Protein: Peroxisomal biogenesis factor 11 gamma
Organism: Fundulus heteroclitus
Amino acid sequence: MQQSVESLVRLLESYRGRDKVIRTVCYGSQLVGGVLTQKAEADVSSKRLGKRLLLFSAQLSHCRTVLRLFDDLSMLAYSQSYGLGASEEDAGVRWISVLTNVADQLYYPCEHIAWAADAELVKVKSDKWWLLSTVLWGTSLFLGILRSLRVLLLLRRKLKKHDWDGGGNRRSHLRRQIRGELLSILSSMADLGNAIHWMPPGFLWAGRFPSWLVGLLGTTSSLIGLIQMTTSSSELSDSAGLSSE
């Protein structure tokens, strides 16, 4: 119990960890709140609780939007360090990653303008800026799925090669990478479903998701993100321990 609490504290002390926890609670609240408000047999108190959870989810979403006001520089630093992806072995992965970085970099200022317009800090209509930020987010997710599919193909080729020439440790490492890419695809597909839902009506299934389904997709994506973060952290600590022995 104590170890679990300490792990949670370490997670909350990091910005990325705290954001993922807030995201999970945000979508989880929307999932439960959406279920409670739509259940026909629910009593008045349950529906009232559901509405409060939806309001709580909206406030957490707004909190994340405000925190993202300070993400531009970190994204810019990452884009500059990646550059044109000269370190990538595959050209397809490299150029998909570059386009993803461009979409992510443009996303932040568009969202900032939309937020500032809603807060009446700038005199522009926020609708088109929210739409543009959603399009950029969806584009980034779609490109991320394409990148993961390409990486999966390359990893399977490597795994097949190592099945022939042996190398048990290498095979297990490749299988972990494959599982990671599969989780990334599932996470991105869940988020892409919500991104399309928030597009203007008439585009695919835009506006057709009930609150509980938006919460379910977002919770699924958020939990996968938490799993990947904790897994990568434990792998780093394990490798550090092995190197010090």
Notes: The chain has eight helices and no strands.
